[in-house]
Structures are given as C-alpha cells and as structure tokens.
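Sequence only, no structure available. Ideas?
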Amino acid sequence: MRFLKLLFPLVLLLLCVGVNQALAQTAMQVAFAVMDSRQSPLPGIAMAVEPLSGQALDGASLSSNPQGQISFEWLPALQESNLDSEDKLVSYVAAFNWRVHAPGFLPEAGQIASQKPLRQLQAQELHSLNTTPSFSPVRQSIVLHALPELFGAGLAHGQQPIKEWCKDFYEKNYLVARQLGAAFDWPGFDMQGQTLVLSLQFSDQGWGGAAQGSLLARAVFNSYLPWCLLLSGSVDSLPQQVQAVKLVFTSRLQAGTSDPHALSKNIVLAATVPVAALREYAARPDSIAYHYPLQQQP
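Reply:
I predicted one. Tokens follow.
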C-alpha cells in the first residue's frame, strides 16, 4: 500500500509532463513588427498581454528588438468534451489580447485567437490515428501614430482644449470603433470654422438585414447612428467654440463588382450634426437620420 502511495504522485507527474510536452509541440509562433507611420521600426516598445486561453512560453520577450520585432511562442490551452460515442472532442485554443503604448504615440491594441478542434479516438487499435494540431504562424504589423498625426491643419496650432478632448475621445473609443465598422482615419480630427470634423474609415461590415442594403444604408445603420450615440455621451465636455460635428466616412470599394481585378475607388459619405442635436440623440435617435442625413459627397 505504501508503495502505491508513493507511485501515484509519480504517475501523476509523468502524465502532466506528457500533456505539457504535447501542448509544447503545438505552440503557436507569434511575431509582431512594430513601426511608425513612415514604416520605420520602433525598438524598445513593450507589449502587455492578457491571456484568454493558454499562455506565453517561459522566457518570452514582450519588448521589440532593434528591428522592431516582438517574437514569442504561445502555448494553447487544452479543452476536452465528451461525444455521444466513446471518442472525445479535443480543442487546442490559443487566444490573447495585446496592447502597446509608447511615450509620444497613441495606444494600439488587438486580439489574436485561433482554435484547432480534433476528434480523439479512444479505441486502442485506432490510437495511432490520433494526431496533435499545428498552428500556422501569426505575423502582424503594428503601426503606432504620433499624437500630432491625429490632428489636421485646422488643429495644428493652438486649440489645446479641443485637442485634449479629441485625444481623450480617441483613447476611449479606438477599440470599439472597429466593432462599428469605422476606424479612425489619419488625421482623425480637424476644425473647419466652428465645426469639428471627425474622419473615419468605413470598413463596410454589414449585419442583419442591412448587410444586403446599399452602401449608404449600411453606413447609416452600422456606423453613422452608433457613432452619433458615442458622440452624444461626450459632447457635454466639448469646448464651447465647437457648434457642430461633421462625420466623414471614407469607403474604398471596387469600381465594378463583375471584375475582381478592377481598380478601387474612394466613396465619401458625410453629415454635419449640431452639438445640440447630438445631446438629444439618446432621447430622439430617429431625429438624427431624418434631419441630418448621411449623404454621398461629390
């Protein structure tokens, strides 16, 4: 009995080592290239990683080297579920959020996620058919923009209170912006008289019934109205000299859908909304689209 008590921890240790070795064989190679907007590498940029499934292998370097590269291996987590038969469904899941923030630059963040499901055969005579997955290497470029790049010519000199508002609005919303199908353009903010111009890149991510509508309809429902809602929660802190906000959505589309090699062209949609109307948006969301419609620009 005493022998069995001593043997059990050893067996458990060997099983754990075996599982870890199997997982190590499936490690995902991850490489980021960190650069500025002129595509010059940025060394010494630290990356913060939030594990969602799995973890970085021991010794991983999360700071960019002199060539601006951040490279490491990500160990996936193993998730098992039983099927109706004796076999098991095994999923190797590798996922994490990343964020970089360097002095003088605006923050950037994103997510890496990959999953490899496999059926594990339990019959002894079929064990040789079981395999471990291999993850494709992940290669991604991270472009960091210097703070002045956020502002157009109308905000190049002075206007510090407005610029502070713009920077704060960007940092609060640059992640959710992508979920609304319209990320910040560069420059993202400018002033034309008493109108603050907010420029966005419309990625045309349709959802629901709007996915089959026209470009204008998709832009209105997927991006324009949600962006007005975002603005409505922040306009109270806008400096008083800003009387209106002009939202400009630029979409790059192919000139002809029948030709996959046709040159693309820019479609620009814009609407100017008074600050007072944005304040009332939460109570009367229909009034924005009706009184201040999004329109294609010549």
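Residues 180 and 227 are 8 Å apart (CA to CA).
Hope that gets you unstuck.
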